[in-house]
Amino acid sequence: MQVVFKTRKFSWASAGKLFASLAAVAAVTAACKYSGVNQTTTGFAYLLTVLFIASSWGFTQTVVTSVVAMLCYNFFFLPPVGKFTITDPQNWIALGAFLVTGIVAGQLSASVKRQAQTAIGRQLELERLYSLGRSILLDSGDQPVASRLARHVAEAFELRAVSLFDVSSSQNHLAGPEDLSVPAGTFQRIVAGEIERIDSSDSRLAVIRLGTKPAGVLAIRGLVSDTALDAVCSLVAIGLERARTQEIENLAKAARQSEELKSTLLDAIAHEFKTPLTSIKAATTTVLAENHLTVQDRELLSIVNEETDRLDNLVSDAIQMSRIEGGKFKLRRSLVSPGQVIETVIAQTRARLEDRPVETAVAPQVTGVYVDRDLIQLCLRQLLDNALKHAPGKSPIELGADLDSSEVRFWVRDDGPGISPAEADRVFERFYRGRLNRHAVPGFGIGLSVVREIARAHGGDAFVESTAGKGSRFIIRLPLTTDQIP
């Protein structure tokens, strides 16, 4: 009904303009007839009337006015007067020129008006696109982003209805005073690429793309050009991408804050453990210095003393790991002997090794390297602890170091079940645990990630060489400084 009403309104407006054109021709005819002006003046009067109508109204009114003016000029002013005949051939030329001039003027006027209307329409669409882009950039709220974008599109272009289908959530969001219902199957066909665009007398649908990937489907009901519709889809795609980027940034920020809080809390707890451990160590050392202890008491106190050292090392490692995870550590390089570093790590882990055979293999040319002693020892302790968890009970474990070109390599080898190629790199990810042993072996999947962090802080890396069922060798590769390169 709305379309029919607009058509009738346009028809009445055209009829009114046509009636006014005929009335103008009649007025000119009457004025020239009763004023007694000559034929030339009358012709110019008709021509001016036609040009005025051409500049004011449309092509149809101009053509009708030209024809009627020509007939009136012929009937009332050209001999024989009162008849639609012409005796002088020159008057035929004058009438023909008059008619052609009127039609050409009407054509030019209609073309200029169409161009002007097109320019005005484009300017209006540009203003609306600017308004839409500004609304998207300043967008915020509690509603889903797709719902807010649909509302912005409806408001900017004064559309009767807008429907925005978001692929990520598979939800349809409506905006505008009217309801625009689109079958879900239509959305799916457009997203699948079966249909690129749907245009009908009632609504239009277009796909929204982020690069080459469909991000949604926009359906509108209202007057929007194809160019503007493409621009609207691009702006909506930017709005969706901006919202998703912001969401990822918020999640990353929350994760960083959580990691910092966890590291700070762990660091505080670990420092709190240091005080009682120091007191226990001092007490056991003092009592062990007494001579009146029985053999059994001395053995028990020795166990307490050793376990206190072990617990103190664990707390120190926890403090170091919390700082590394929080990114709050600096390298303190010094010249150290790889052999001494390995022997220190074995001594610190002696209580856990028990009767486990441990072999060392340090290349003779590895005499000294510039590294952070404490952090490298932490790495080797983590790798040794990992080998103790996964290798069979009495199988040997090997620690070694050698030079390879311009780098030094520390490693820990075990005869455990090995690691599949698919998991060889993932084992260094934080909180990742092997698929086969994640429930059988204690731990949180943090140690190896710390090892890689320390190696990369030195400018190197950590990796594993392994064959399923034949053990693994974890390697820390560290570049030598310029003074160390032979």
The percent of residues in helical segments reads 55-70%
Strand fraction: 15-25%
Question: What are the segments in which pLDDT stays under 50 over at least 5 consecutive residues?
Answer: 1-10, 438-444
Structural class of the secondary elements?
A: alpha+beta
Radius of gyration: 45 Å
How many β-strand runs? 12
* Series of secondary-structure elements, N-terminal to C-terminal: HHHHHEEHEEEHHEHHEEHEEHEE
**What is the name of the CATH superfamily of the largest domain?**
Histidine kinase-like ATPase, C-terminal domain
What is the fold-level CATH name, i.e. the topology of the largest domain? Heat Shock Protein 90
Shape: rod-shaped
CATH class of the largest domain: Alpha Beta
Sheet with most strands: strand arrangement: 2-1-5-4-3
Number of domains: 4
First and last CA, distance = 92 Å
